[in-house]
Design brief:
InterPro entries: F420-0_g-glutamyl_ligase, F420-0_gamma-glut_ligase-dom. This protein is an alpha+beta fold and 260 residues long. It has helices spanning 24-34, 49-55, 69-78, 82-91, 138-153, 208-220, and strands at residues 8-11, 44-48, 59-61, 92-98, 103-107, 112-114, 130-132, 158-167, 170-181, 186-188, 205-207, 229-233. It has 6 helices and 12 strands. The chain has a 5-stranded mixed β-sheet with strand order 1-12-2-8-9. A 3-stranded antiparallel β-sheet has the order 4-5-6.
Amino acid sequence: MNTVQELTVRPLPGLPMFAVGQPIAQAICRALADTGDSLRDGDICVIAQKIVSKVEGRTVDLASLEPGEQAQALARRTGRDPGMAQAILDESAEIMRPHPAAIIARHRTGHVLANAGIDASNVAGGDEGTVLLWPVDPDASARRLRADLVRVSGARVGVVIADSMGRAWRIGTVGTAIGCAGLVVLEDRRGQGVDLYGRTLQATVIAVADSIAAMASLAMGEGDEGTPVAIVRGASRWVCGDDGAGAVSGLRPVEQDMFR
């Protein structure tokens, strides 16, 4: 029987408005130090995708794109700006469901979400056509951030890069892990545990990284809170000594997709 452990999530105030090339790990450690705290072994840093993308220079001016025929057709079908349609196509491996409400796409990384993760909220120039793309490789970004945090703090930590994503069968968005390092992404309990009546678990696979992302995103907020980082404590049982398999290991293989 597993012992229930207290989980806490702490949004981190005092972070700057991040720009291209600005070191995120140093800013996190400095902001923690300003509160009289520091990273500890087993901490998990949940970092909003937007600041990672900003630091990596993933902004695009839609006016700079030249929409092709496919983008023009997609724009007509969905009522989107042709430049936005082209940006979505550029970031996608597959357009799964074009709709005026959202263009559901399989991102190059394998994640399925609206508009290939492209967003203008909390982006300078968003009203004038500047949008933000996901990191080129969110798992690689998480690995770099983890290495920087370990180097600066000396603590054994996990990193989750989180973005808000919808779900096909539910209303609303939930914080989801799109990049991960140093953390168990899935805890497979099948055949490993029992329920209250002693029955062996047959289908239980816990989405650890997504659950932590969701909890932290609630605390971080989605608007003008200005807290794009949260520290999760009490989850050290899932923090591993190496980088781990990354968030992509939690994606359902295409051949097992039950919603196609």
